[in-house]
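Valacyclovir hydrolase isoform X1
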Amino acid sequence: MCCNANIREALLLELLEDDIDLNVVGAAVEILAQSVDIDAMDMDTPDDFHNHVRLSKGRFQTQKIDVDGQTINYVKVGNGPKTVLCFPGALGTIWSDFKPQVENLDREKFTIVAWDPPGYGYSRPSNRKFGIHFYRNDAICAEKFMNTLGIDKYSLLGWSDGGISSMILAAAYPEKVEKLVCWGSNAYLVADEVKQCESLRDISKWSDKMKAPLVELYTEKGLSDMWNAWCDTCVKLYENGGDICKDDLKQIKCPVFILHGDKDPMIAAEHPDYLLSNIKMAKLHRFPNGKHNIHLRYAEEFNSLVTKFLLE
């Protein structure tokens, strides 16, 4: 998101670290945070984080490109032989979701591409569109985006929603996807996940400090409309049996690295094992104390593990 919107993590950090019951709506807004660990970044206030993100954006200039009439905002850094596309989660963008990877992955070994998915952040117009096929639509758009950039082969780093779309992309375009890394992702929905979604639906119940950065980016109505559409989609998917991309897993031919935080409150504990059992060339690494944001909370270890996997 824009630099102001990146404060969302700073404002939500206390929820991430305090283990507050997700049945409490305010605490459950962590689903939006997909957070950064401010405590590990030598910062004391949201303003410090804001300034830090602004400096990062200054060092890495974003660009815009048209993909079938959709504006796509992205950043491309490094000149390494291995290209990696970073795929954000729900409402997520380059700087909210992949700052430690854009900044710290080896730019001599990798060419790192990170984007704001369609309708998120600065990838507007057009505004975000949901519906039960949005994961698949994002995957198709990502492939077209990389094709527009002239990149024929690449690996994927997909977080949460971005991990789901990355699995779909890998299944649909096996000739293009060399390797896949995903975390915080699932191939289907369970009842508790839909209940969490419903508990978060009404943004008027969110605290002002939690909501403000997103409102700055999307406006109050825009945020409400977007979030309700996301919630509606989750409900519809669950009512249709909960399947998101189960069949796609069997079509994935590339090596897959699943990472999981064992204390992730956002997805059911069964999901990483299901992915491991249903993707042929998959392996799993667990962070025993990790939550939903392992690539941010444990950025150095995460980057090291991912680098080793992508280069082996």
